Amino acid sequence: MDAIVVEGLEKTYPKGIRALDGVSFRVREGEVFGLLGPNGAGKSTTVRVLATLTAPDAGSATVAGHDVFREPDAVRGVIGYVAQQSGHDREATGRENLALQGHVHGLRGAPLRRRVDELLDRLGIADAGDRIVRTYSGGMRRRLDIGLGLVHEPSVLFLDEPTTGLDPEARASMWDELERLAREESLTVLLTTHYLEEADQLADRLAIVSQGKVVVEGTPEGLKRQLRGDAVTIELADGRAEDAEAAIRALRGVHEASVEDQLLRARVENGGTAVPGILSALEGRGIGVTSVTMSRPSLDDVYLHVTGRDFRTEDQASADE
Amino acid sequence: MTAVEHTWFMFGRHVRSLARQPVWIVILLIQPFFWLVLYSQLFRRITDLPGFETSSYIEFLTPGIVVMTAFFTGAWNGMSMVNDLDRGIIERFLAIPARRSSLVLSHVAQCSLNAVIQGLIVLCLGYLMGARVREGLLGWLVILVAAALVAACFSGISNGIALFTRREETMIAVSNFIALPLLFFSSALIARDLMPDWMRTAARLNPVEWGVVSARETVQPDTDWGTIGLYFVLLVATVAATSAFATWSFRAYRRTL
Ligand SMILES: Nc1ncnc2c1ncn2[C@@H]1O[C@H](COP(=O)(O)OP(=O)(O)OP(=O)(O)O)[C@@H](O)[C@H]1O
Ligand SMILES: [Mg+2]
């Protein structure tokens, strides 16, 4: 059975902002599913709809077999929701935060205390459990947020950008812990992120969301494999980009090539064997090369391929707006 | 039942967070002290005027200040709601099966508790300065209940406004706009008989005045329990109405998400 079924969600905010433009996807039970997309793509809006916070204009959704719009309370009982903006109480201790959350979920007495201790322990903030949250570091706070989503042992966990704002080291250790938690608590996880590495690392399957729509869906490996081969990026020394593109297209083992200013991007069957051929072809036409980089296909490339836009510049551009 | 339980849990959160803010406690202590000392010095000779039934102004003033402080506490209570909204705390509770009413009513309850604590401080200070409540402990109780009701009444309005504006600046402007006239249209600081007729009539519709009058009955000779009873009933009804307003604003806020 699918733990999350989303079909044709649409939502327009006041002032005509089209946040969701027909989002559909399915998440299998026990899977970690990533929603990947740049700023403003509609990731948070999707998750907020599934967490019963926001009503969409159209579409349907079920979570753990419950209809999100007809049985919101049943959904709230089986999901954990960790918002992009954390919702903990800064003036309370970590333990008090978790206990209150548990109380509202109907937990009491010894079982609640045990659960709180267990979570503090699993999240690695046991030592800080009785400290006021205001004194926590960013990473500790994020862990507490995740704990708040887990108190009642939900079957589905929504994580909206769990590692945004953490330094790379804290992010890496959070990844490890999320993987472990998902396993230990036998969770279905819907994770949103705009870090490609994060989706790559954590998600069993992922959907790339852009401008309120799912543009592509699959396993990280599968998506990259679709691109057939490695990416080669060549920085040209003195323009003549069109000439260079034409020269390369003619070569065997080159699937596609494109130019952007001084950058020539090509997708090749096998980077190791193709590069020497490319370089000699360029040299033969007297086109100078400044640098060559070769990489296994990444989700960046997938994004570029399906949307025709560069993920990082798009993410940056909408963040600057 | 669940609603009561949830309100109790949320109430506990507010109380703990208040108890941990030393600045708040100091303000809670200093503010009434300041009012009491300032006004009693400023208007020392005011009781020479006709219309004051008590022998000293401090005696007249003490119940007035208790209710006035409660009123201010209530009128500003929406700030903590704005805070909870800003920090995503309300949203977190919306995604779990928390009773909606508990999110609002716990603020109202906490506000009443605040007013009672402040009221006790003022009463003790007043006592030290010579004010005597004629009805003894029962009188103190009446004054504190009046404070709790007035605070709850305005906390409802304030929280309702907070849920509409959701911004501190707007909150401050609206609270000021409402608070000052309501204070002037009451006999918190000055005897009713000294007000012009039209003001006195307007004051009769003012919940602050209901609180002030019932609290003050207990320091005057011939306490009129009928008046106290009537105003308490009116206050309880108003608390119900303003809490309903706040809960309704909460639903309106939900729909904007
Ligand atoms: N409450 C709101 N009112 C109006 N517009 C909103 C609201 N919330 C989101 N939007 C708009 O809807 C669109 C999608 O927003 P959403 O928060 O879902 O994006 P996101 O993918 O989560 O982005 P990010 O990575 O920045 O968190 C954006 O254009 C945003 O400006
Ligand atoms: Mg978001």
Short descriptors:
heterodimer; A: 321 residues; alpha/beta; Rossmann fold; Alpha-Beta Plaits; six-stranded mixed β-sheet; four-stranded antiparallel β-sheet; 12 helices; 39% helix; elongated; B: 257 residues; mainly alpha; 78% helix; 0% strand; binds adenosine-5'-triphosphate; binds magnesium ion
Question: How would you characterize this protein structure?
Answer:
The complex is a heterodimer of chains A (321) and B (257). With 321 residues, chain A is an alpha/beta fold. Chain A is built from 12 helices and 14 strands. Chain A folds into 2 domains: 2-223, 3-Layer(aba) Sandwich (Rossmann fold); 228-296, Alpha-Beta Plaits. A 6-stranded mixed sheet of chain A has the order 6-7-8-3-9-10, with helices on both faces. A 4-stranded antiparallel sheet of chain A has the order 2-1-4-5, covered by helices on one side. In chain A, strands 12-13-11-14 form a 4-stranded antiparallel sheet, covered by helices on one side. In chain A, helix 3 (94-104) packs across helix 4. Chain A starts with a strand and ends with a helix. The model of chain A has no long low-confidence stretch (mean pLDDT 90). The model of chain B has no long low-confidence stretch (mean pLDDT 90). In chain B, helix 4 (78-86) crosses helix 7. Chain B is elongated and about 60 Å long. Chain B has helices at residues 2-19, 22-42, 57-76, 78-86, 89-94, 100-128, 136-165, 168-184, 197-203, 207-217, 225-256. Chain B is mainly α. The complex binds adenosine-5'-triphosphate and magnesium ion (MG). The site of adenosine-5'-triphosphate has 13 residues of chain A, from strand 2 and helix 1.
